[in-house]
Amino acid sequence: MPIRIGRVWCLAGGLLLAGVQATGWAQPAQDGLELGGAVRFSYGWLDYADSPGADLELLRAEARGRKGPASFSFQYRWYDGFDAVHHAWAGWDIGSDAQLRAGVQQVPFGLLPYASHSFWFGSGYYLGIEDDYDLGVVWEHGAGPHRWHVGWFQGDEYGSGARHGRYSFDVATTPELPYRERGRVALRYERVLDWNGAALALGGSAFTGHIEDRAAGGHHGHHAAALHAQWRRGPATVQLQWARYRYGNPEPRMALSAFMFPFEIAAEADVPTFNLAWALPRPGWFDGVTCYNNLSLTLPRGGDPGLRESWQNVTGCSFAKGRMFTYVDWIAGRNMWFAGGPGVGIAEPGGDGWRSRLNVNMGFFF
Questions:
Q1: Cβ distance 222 to 247 under 8 Å?
Q2: DSSP per residue, 205-221
Q3: SS3 of residue 10 by DSSP
């Protein structure tokens, strides 16, 4: 088998590069093996706490390959204080229009690959409904303007809510909320239309499954649904999505975790998203420049006094030059995790004020 070592075009923690398809990780078109990796540096400034300054944010190694109808993709990451698998799956082509994949892979839900354009993602990421990677089997079929995803997931990528060092946000097992994710079935459909010279992708997604009570035993429901649309014409992109999720546990909250920190979210909420992006037609010295504004909310349902709506708005630009890809983002949050809030959809005395942070992330890919 020939080996090709070079740049692996992929999505990496929010870095949208040219070779990614809307359905997930780009597939090798020819037989062979591709190896790659990345190193990323970040600088942060916060208006509500001590700023983290500049540091090494990530090291990453990856491989993907194809031999006839068989393919695979693997990525592992090292962060400050922990390391984690991002994805690891093997696939088999079923004819020219379908593929079956098994392993740790992206849950097909909502706008793909992301309901956002920034390094910081949207609110759905912190709620476990955007760019979530779990262990399961997915059948994907695309014919003409139609694309289907059907998936079954055994649980989260580690099978344990007690491990908080991970990339994507999953149900966390905590003393107050001792749950973990269990079996889940996901269904997604999208159709792409030519609308007055623009590409309009309309779709819907849903999943249903369970969470397990690790202390008392038994299971509760875990459900979500979304309607989503993406309009693209020339340099402009508009994304719209309305998602609703629900955990059936008796408490009004659920605990999630990633990046070593468990936190709480509303157990049931609506999550509207409205994103704009514009690719500069003449980026000058850069190979590409895209500027964007991503707005998303979390609107708790149920009327519990311990819950409150959360807002997140990210304004920024991404800059591509050769092997370098950089984000410059201004993140403004109101009652929002990672922007000074206690969680997502959680009430906090005095938490109604807006807090913000500057994030600069520069990555080098090989």
A1: yes
A2: EEEEEEEEETTT--EEE
A3: coil
Count each helix (H run) and each strand (E run) in the chain, helices first.
1, 23
pLDDT band at 262 (very low <50, low <70, confident <90, very high): very high
Torsion from C-alpha of 355, 13, 165, 187, nearest 10 degrees: 100
In the predicted model, is pLDDT for residue 16 greater than 90?
no
Picking from 324, 237, 315, 328, the residue whose alpha carbon sits closest to that of residue 279 is 237
Write down the mean pLDDT value for the chain.
91
Count the helix, strand and coil residues of the chain and give each as a percent rounded to the nearest 5: 0, 65, 35
Phi, psi (5° rounding) for residue 208?
-145, 140
| Structure confidence at residue 126 as a pLDDT band (50, 70, 90) | very high
Q: In the chain, what percentage of residues exceed pLDDT 90?
A: 83
The answer to whether residue 318 scores a pLDDT higher than 90 is: yes
Tokens for 364?
A: 């080098």
Q: Which two tokens mark 97?
A: 């229009």
Residue 262: which of 186, 189, 162, 332 has the closest Cα?
162
Q: What angle do CA 22, 68, 191 make, to 5 degrees?
A: 25
Per the CB < 8 A criterion, the answer to whether 91 and 72 are in contact is yes
What type of residue sits at position 356?
Answer: S
CA-wise closest residue to 275 among 239, 242, 315: 239
CA distance 56 to 76: 16
Find tokens 């999943």 and name the residue.
207
Whole-model pTM: value is: 0.91
Phi first, then psi, for residue 217 (nearest 5°) are 80, 170
Mean pLDDT of 62-85: 96
Burial class (CB in 10 A: 0-12, 13-18, 19+), 66: buried
104: nearest Cα among 63, 73, 84, 133: 133
Neighbouring CB atoms inside 10 A of 350's CB total 5
